[in-house]
Amino acid sequence: MIYFEPPVGSQLCAGVPRDNVTIGMEEIMPMKLTKTIAAASFVLASSAISAVAGPLMDRIEAGEPIRIGFSNIPIWGFPDEDGNAKGFVNEIALGILAEMGYDDVETTVTEWGGLIPGLKANRYDLITGGLYILNSRCENIAFSEPIGSMGDAFLVPAGNPRNINNYADVLAQDDSVLVMYSGANTVEASRREGLEDGQMMQVPGPTETMAAMRAGRGDAAALTYFEAVYLAEESDGAFEVTDPAALPEWTKNWVGIGFRDEDADFMAEFNAALANYVGTEAMLESVAEYGYTASHLPGDRTAEWVCGNR
Description:
The chain has 11 helices and 15 strands. By secondary structure, the chain is an alpha/beta fold. The strands form 3 sheets. Strands 1, 2, 3, 6, 7, 8, 9 and 15 form an 8-stranded mixed sheet that branches.
């Protein structure tokens, strides 16, 4: 059964002022679907779990499904033609839940800007789809331990006619415009590098990004490296990807799964399973088709460290 919900384009991700966001998305409609994942036994040390059950554990004990929210973002998290949750973040999250023995999962596809507000409004129990762990987001939601580490890149017209490789290049050309998702980490990065509203075009997602670039309304688009590569490959040679190393080192980020603060007990259980699953052969095989390799593993950085440093 597929359900349709009203668009949530006016809802914003953490850390992004409402008056700085341009909304123009009508195409991506939220939908719900139920997916069963294979259960696997998992023994968890009792010391890792809070003694007080949170709302999500109450739902699970009542026989209700775990609700996952994600946006339609290539490579990271998206629905396939049959409505199944795909993308490497979804694959990892579902793999961890399977390790924990949870086999009843309901997923909802919504706009990027609606993920954190939807989680806080209790429409989802956890959110995936490629959320970087950022300090501004940590002030609003809790994050699992990192599941990967990635960088960003710019999507530019073939040949890079304006020689835009980083934020400084945009800033140096007064009439240039950088396209980015509303609520994405690149909004904060742009402001940190000195860009102002006149050089920043914020859109809901990849469809609008490509529309702006093809129409010549943007000179470059700031994206995750995975997304930039995917969109360039889909452009029939119209666009190319800049070198990620051209961006500041501090733009390298770590990815996590978002939870409500009150579900700390469930997140502790999730983190224990994550520690046993991320980096295994089974995990790497499940995400190989998306380009995720051992080089993208999170290393020894913790969510606490990333929250304090990104």
